[in-house]
Amino acid sequence: MGKQFVVGDQNGWKVGFDYQAWAADKTFRVGDALVFNYRVGEHNVFKVNGTQFQSCAVPPQSEALSSGSDSIVLATPGKKWYICGVSGHCNAGQKLVINVLDNAGAWPPTLPPSPSPSPLPAPLRHRGLAAAFPSWVPRKLLPGIFH
Ligand SMILES: [Cu+2]
After folding, report:
1. Cα 43 → chain centroid
2. Tell me, what's the pLDDT at 61?
3. Distance 126 CA to ligand 1 centre (A)
4. What is the pLDDT of residue 103?
5. Would strands 95-101 and 78-83 be described as parallel, antiparallel, or unpaired?
6. What residue segments make up the domains of the chain, in order of their start?
7. Taking the model in full, what pTM does it have?
8. Low-confidence stretches of the chain (pLDDT beneath 70)
């Protein structure tokens, strides 16, 4: 299970909060989730690309998250950009960019040590040794293998 980050913590998702400062001391990894909390109708959330982020270009309304408690699982590593699509909000700073790290080394947390190989039972060991010689080698030349 990944961590869950409430964007802006108790401030939620709004105008007038510095989301880059909020994100600055956090490490986001694949499998973690962002939660955007806001009053339904006052804001929304769009996942955008870097160009849209820079210019506050709002995608079609159909792509908006608008439940008021939108959870987004970070499924892939790399930069992720989010903006509010309500007119003027992104330009006023309601935008968030994060860098998601892959979770190599974090999952699985620890690998159990592989069990040491148990010795083969004696009959198997003999068969294995005989099989190591080509079949044209007379078996009588392999003393000690066959009992
Ligand atoms: Cu907004």
Report:
1. 27
2. 94
3. 76
4. 83
5. antiparallel
6. 4-101, 118-147
7. 0.71
8. 105-147
Pairing, β 95-101 against β 28-29: parallel
pLDDT value for 29: 97
* CA–centroid distance, residue 18 to ligand 1 (Å): 13
List residues, by chain if needed, whose CB lies under 5 Å from ion ligand 1: 43, 84, 86, 89, 94
Task: Report CA(84)–ligand 1 centroid distance (Å).
Answer: 5
Distance of CA 89 from the midpoint of ligand 1 (Å): 5
Cis bond before residue 123 (omega within 30° of 0): no
Pick the CATH number of 4-101 from 2.30.40.10, 2.60.40.1180, 3.40.50.2000, 2.60.40.420: 2.60.40.420
**C-alpha count within 13 angstroms, C-beta hemisphere, residue 138:** 2
Calculate how far, in angstroms, residue 38's C-alpha sits from the geometric centre of ligand 1.
9
